[in-house]
Amino acid sequence: MTRLMLAELAKLLDLQSKDLILLEADVRLKATLDEKARLDTDLEAARREAQVAQNRLEDGVKKREDVEVKIDSYRTIQEKRRSRLEVARGAREAQAVMTEVDMARQVLAKEEGEWVKVSEAVHDLERGLKAAEDRAAALQESQTAERERIEAEQAAIETERQAAKATRDASATQIEKTLKARYDRLRSARSVAVVVSLRGDACGACFTAVPRNRRTQIRAGLVFDNCEACGVILYAEESLG
């Protein structure tokens, strides 16, 4: 392999090693973000449960208030009927008013019974809301230490990644532009090594056989050739000495 080709190959392999370090940092960073997302999902579910309980309680309170309004209305009407009874003229009119009062009393009793049922349901909903809020608060508290660990780990990885990225970018500037563009195109499509050594007569990535004349050129350092099957840039490991 020519000295120039050998130098470019060394730079390319160095860049690739730094890209793989950067990739590994990205994988670890994603893992921490996934952990945080899992905690957020669990907490959000608990908070949604509390919100649902809150909405049900508000509906229950509104229903109780509606029943109270009806009861107040019936009581007002009942008072007016009693007043009419006091000034009723004759037994027939008094009987008619009494009949209305009795019927209204039954309706009122029914509504008061409904109010008791609704009030009991509201108390149950209040207890349900308190329990849901307590679960959400307990879950948030239980996540505190884990979140602190994840935040610290994320910060450390981001610092490490920033340093790795700076080192990688510095190395990238040392490579011939056409070769770097070729390398970058492959890197954009693959998350594994894209500069791979021959393995005997085959590509070291996909193990597809490489024609003899191309193997000869690669080993002689005449070309940076690609695998016809998977596209990786092939080189001969023995050429590195």
Order of helices and strands: HHHEEHEE
Report Rg: 40 Å
Q: Give the termini separation.
A: 10 Å
The poorly predicted ranges are none
Mean pLDDT: 90
Record the strand order, biggest sheet: 2-1-4-3
What is the second-level CATH architecture of the largest domain? Orthogonal Bundle
In the CATH hierarchy, the third-tier topology of the largest domain is known as Helix Hairpins
Number of domains in the coordinates?
2
Strand segment tally: 4
- Dominant shape: rod-shaped
The helix tally amounts to 4
What fraction, in percent, of the residue positions are helical?
over 70%
> Which secondary-structure class do the elements indicate?
mainly alpha
Largest sheet: 4 strands, mixed
CATH top level of the largest domain is Mainly Alpha
Hey, roughly how much beta strand do the residues contain? Answer: under 5%
Description of the structure:
The longest helix has 84 residues, at 3-86. The chain has 241 residues and is mostly helical. The relative contact order is 0.14. The chain has a four-stranded mixed sheet. Strand 1 (195-199) and strand 2 form a beta hairpin. The mean pLDDT is 90. It has four helices and four strands.
